[in-house]
Specification:
three-stranded antiparallel sheet; alpha+beta; homodimer; four-stranded mixed sheet
């Protein structure tokens, strides 16, 4: 394209396009050039010895059981975020951490567009729920709960297909 | 953790932690709660018939040859972003689009922390550089240029290892 279209912002130095969106200062209304981008998260499918995976019951909307995870910090690798979130939410250390797949459907989180890079790992240590009183439970592969939050039913279905050699 | 630490912001409704960072309004100095997150990009290793991959020579810093890619828009899936960027930067449609791996080293882009989900695909159509006059060239696998931008030398090395069955 020869010219940037209306509303299409580009980095002034390199010409690369910014993600679209403007935000306004809540006090004075000034447009703050904070271009909107999907928020990046990690989720971790943690297998434990003896079989089964760890799920956490959410105490806040969206309700249901979820694989552990959370937001990636600026300056943090995906792998470091996965290790940190697993420790914060389950008290476990991870070994054999591997990237599985990234999920990016804009409707996967009702709170806004998040893109999750999903990892698989083996958990070491005794799993325990975080102090903010979320429930934590180990579920055998063939007896997962019905009420899975976000797109975690799809993620786990893809994971079991991969384990069975279907993709 | 029982209490959120100082500077650790959480979504008021669900208690999930925000990525850290505050920005101030450039006019009035008000803190705008626009928490910083790594910016999400896609890059696409496009193979063409007859062998070889498409690289684009950057006209702006960081200089060098790069695999095509760009920022993911809010509300856009990773796969849609990959198709759009390939079309914008090379004029090609993609078939057999597959996720390869995500790269997240905070130093991979000197302009700021970007996380790239890298795809592989086969390109269809005649490749042509975008109007903003970037150079485009098909390189045989065994004759890549020396000056690759970002972490694209690592990405391509991983890709060739994968093709050779090393990982």
């Amino acid at each position: 394209m020869s010219e940037a279209g209306a509303g299409e912002k580009r980095f002034p130095r390199c010409g690369e396009r910014f993600p679209r969106c403007e935000e306004r200062c809540p006090r004075c209304g000034e447009i703050v050039r904070s271009y909107r981008n999907p928020l990046l998260t990690v989720d971790i499918i943690i297998e434990v010895s003896g079989g089964g995976i760890i799920l956490i019951e959410r105490k806040n909307p969206p309700f249901g059981w979820a694989i552990p995870g959370g937001f990636v910090d600026y300056g943090e690798t995906l792998e470091a975020a996965a290790m940190r979130e697993a420790r914060e939410e389950t008290g476990m250390d991870l070994v054999d951490l591997k990237q599985f797949h990234a999920y990016s459907d804009p409707k996967r989180d009702p709170r806004g567009h998040t893109v999750s890079v999903v990892f698989t790992a083996i958990g070491r240590g005794s799993p325990q729920a975080a102090d903010d009183a979320k429930n934590l439970q180990i579920f055998p592969f063939d007896r997962l709960p019905e009420n899975l939050a976000f797109d975690h039913a799809l993620i786990l279905s893809d994971y079991f297909d991969m384990k069975a050699g279907y993709n």
